[in-house]
Amino acid sequence: MKFLIVFVALFAMAVARPNEAQIVRLDSEVEPEKWSSNLETSDGTSIVQEGVLKNVGTEHEAAVVHGSFSWVDEKTGEKFTINYVADENGYQPQGAHLPVAPVA
């Protein structure tokens, strides 16, 4: 259920832009213990994710999602990409344009 909510939210962000982008690719595969999805639009937006349940059937069952999303800045033409992991340790994004905390 959480996967569906996240996917719908990301999908809505991708298609709600005012520039009339068209979906050029939309694939998804959902199985009981793993899933994947891939969305690409005509304006260069891309969302890819794969998830899996780990420790199935135990009290420590958790979803682990690896993914990325990219978009092209309409004004500069620069492409931005965020790669992420979302697991029991939270959401962990990485991207060349994201600030990084200094090493203590």
Largest sheet: 6 strands, antiparallel
Average pLDDT reading: 87
Tell me the number of strands.
6
Supply the number of helical segments.
1
Question: How would you explain this protein's 3D organization?
Answer:
- The protein is mainly beta and 104 residues long.
- The chain has one domain.
- The chain is 13% helix and 48% strand.
- The chain is built from 1 helix and 6 strands.
- Strands 1-2-3-4-5-6 form a 6-stranded antiparallel beta sheet, covered by helices on one side.
- A hairpin with a 2-residue loop joins strand 5 and strand 6 (90-94).
- The relative contact order is 0.14.
- The mean pLDDT is 87.
What's the topology here?
Blueprint: H1 2-15, E1 23-30, E2 34-41, E3 46-54, E4 62-72, E5 79-87, E6 90-94
Antiparallel strand pairs: 1-2, 2-3, 3-4, 4-5, 5-6
Short note summarizing the structure:
The chain has 104 residues and is mainly beta. It has one domain. The chain contains 1 helix and 6 strands, in the order H-E-E-E-E-E-E.
State the main characteristics:
13% helix, flat, Larval cuticle protein 65Ab1-like, mainly beta, cuticle, 6 strands, 104 residues
